Amino acid sequence: MEVRDTLSSSLKRVESTRGKRINMFVCGPTVYDLPHMGHARTYIFFDILARYLRFKGFRVFYLMNITDIEDHIITRAKEEGIQWDSITSRYSNEFFKTMEDIKNNSVNLYAFATDYISEIISQISRLIEAGYAYETSDGIYFRVRKFEGYGKLSHQNLDSLKAGIRVDVNEHKEDPLDFALWKKRKEGEPYWPSPWGDGRPGWHIEDTAITESIFGVTYDIHGGATDLIFPHHEAEIAQMESISGKSPMVRYWIHTGHLNVENIKMSKSLKNFITVKEVLKNYWPEALRILMLSMRYNGPVNFEEKALRDSQNLAEKISILSHRVARAERVENDKSMEMLNDILKPLEDDMNTPEALARITEFVKDSLSSTTPSDTNGGEIRYVLDQLENVTGIVHNVPLPERSLDMLLDLRNEMRNKGNYESSDLIRKRLMEYGIRIEDTTNGSYLWW
After folding, report:
1. Closest by CA position to 427, among listed 405, 398, 397, 401
2. What is the DSSP letter of 203?
3. How far is C-alpha 400 from the chain's CA centre?
4. DSSP letters of 43-80?
5. Is 346 strand, coil or helix?
């Protein structure tokens, strides 16, 4: 399996240096608002990546941080007139609920930044001792020009770099590119004690403090959205490699592309900001996952209603097939494993999910045209669907229907065969009111929902 590494701008074979163990860190959210479709775009991809690596036999430890102290949080708390930690508690719970709703279940540990203050202070102290950081009247800053490799991830040189998002430009700094490691206490803001006075951590330092604490100074995979490459991930590299003297800090840097809404990048300022909760009111989580699978992870995803409707349509077809074979005994044999491996093979090529999805679509189409629950290959199809659910999370599984529903379906079919269409249609209508659908085919009738 190969993935594209942002640092080397090349495809690299995924291997572990510790047996089958792979340590993966993905930048988590700043919890001051509801999770949006940009979050879904990134976190669904990394959820599927972790699932697939585990399917291949790797022991993946998936770590994600939660930024629970930051300027946006403080601003939101002031706007609502409540404590900052009330904001972080509310929106971290919203985030976890949303991740559960969209079937993102592969994270091993969510690490809150404020639980790692001592580790943050330790890193800053070591950076000061090594001459990579300095104190001013308003905080501690990192000396960017002292770190020779700054800009290597974004493939820029220092002379061309400009202070970017979340980089404070002020008169206290030695250089406009220098970034805050520690912000000294301001009136009305949360703070923690430190050797440099009360204050709070900067944004970039939390990630390296967390990963060093759990993984050590180097690890395997670091993921996040493309807009984090500079300055955030550049800053992480500078911090950790300055302390450790070891390079590269990460063996594979993987970044997801932007989410566009009707071909325009999603942003609050453009008022095209869409929350996941809004989308899930009308579409299955499987449809959302299929939409993300339909486009390459490192390119832009265009959010359009038509594309989401098409994804919902495929999710429903997969669900119909799953219901048809739900009572079949799962069969794992050479044929079922060959079908599965053929579908998943494109993931070996830099997680080519569009090609894998095309093969899933063809598999579902062929299976629906030829399969009944009594077919001998029903168990093989069930095996493939179960494994696809484990890797991609796109199978809308529900409990098997109660036998009473089977009896009701039999009664409806008997009425239909006798020409009593009014009664049979009434049963269909009543079942639909409870979200239960009847699918009539030449091979029989099936319930699904």
Report:
1. 405
2. T
3. 29
4. HHHHHHHHHHHHHTT-EEEEEEEEB-SSHHHHHHHHHH
5. helix
Model confidence at 350, pLDDT cuts 50, 70, 90, reads very high
Strands 437-441 and 444-448: antiparallel
Within a 10 A sphere around the Cβ of 129, how many other Cβ atoms? 10
CATH number of 2-260: 3.30.1490.110, 3.40.50.300, 3.40.50.620, 3.40.50.1580? 3.40.50.620
Report which of 41, 435, 102 is spatially closest to residue 287, judged by C-alpha positions.
Answer: 102
Q: 68-94: per-residue pLDDT in tens?
A: 999 999 999 999 999 999 999 999 999
Is the pLDDT higher at 235 or at 431? 235
What are 298-336's pLDDT values in tens digits?
A: 998 888 889 999 999 999 899 889 988 887 889 999 999
* Mean pLDDT value of segment 428-438: 72
- What residue type is 231 in one-letter code? P
Residue spans per domain, the chain? 2-260, 282-392, 403-448
Q: Alpha carbon of 87 to those of 73, 119, 176, 198, 202: distances in Å? A: 7, 24, 31, 22, 19
